[in-house]
Amino acid sequence: MKTAIALTVTLLFGTLPAQAQAQEAGLPLWEAGVFASAGTTPAYPGSSDRASRALVLPVFVYRGEIFRADNSGIGARVLRTDTVELDVGFSGALPASSEAIDARRGMPDLGTLVEFGPRLKWTLGHPTPGSRLRLELPLRTVLEFNGGVRDQGVAFEPGLVHESRDVGGGWSLSTRASLIFGDRKLNGYFYDVEKKYATAQRPAFEAQAGLIATRLAFATSKKLTQDLRVIGFARLESYAGAANQHSPLFLQTTGSAIGIGLSWTLGRSESRVSD
Asked: Which residues of 243-262 are buried (b: 16+ CB within 10 A; e: fewer)?
């Protein structure tokens, strides 16, 4: 689970009959627009260097009964009840150049990562009107795109999510607390040092499977106009107890990220859906 700024282009192709779920009130079945953001994050978990980016991306939101592309990512809903939902989702992270990271200089770059796999979402309750507490259990295969496509292992990120609408002044807030685990291959992607890249300051190291980070993340948004929404996020991470603290690429035990964005909707459907 790379901590570069998340790649949030959500493009989904395919159509389903909208009549079965269209309602007089609710969210548009689809929306299309542009998302502009700027932010800064650690270059990777445990890095002392940072990656800062400004991005302008096309966004397509589709809220189909099965196929969906929204602020939770791209996916296909397999099962849905009042309390449990199972989907297959996608997410991603942008690349980081090793030449811009002191500890990795001379090593291969970290490429674009795409993650996909099943995610179980279990609603635990509604603490207050307009709020929801949910347990999420995503298990995802990680693919790297960097001069080709390579399998880089498996990530598991169990977490608790609390969402509130209209917390004050029209703001919505989402809070997530999670643990990030990687198998040996994924942890090796971040922390391995092969002998050919070893130096006096960077000895060879072989990573092991286990905890990558403990994460607390916040996201908030507010609709400024019918078509314009401001979005902000902040993330705190602790790498204490991580499985690969002895890697020469592991340089600090805490990390943070912050960013802001604007979403501009250029078009939307007249059909409405409940969720």
From this structure: bbeebbbbeeeebebebebb
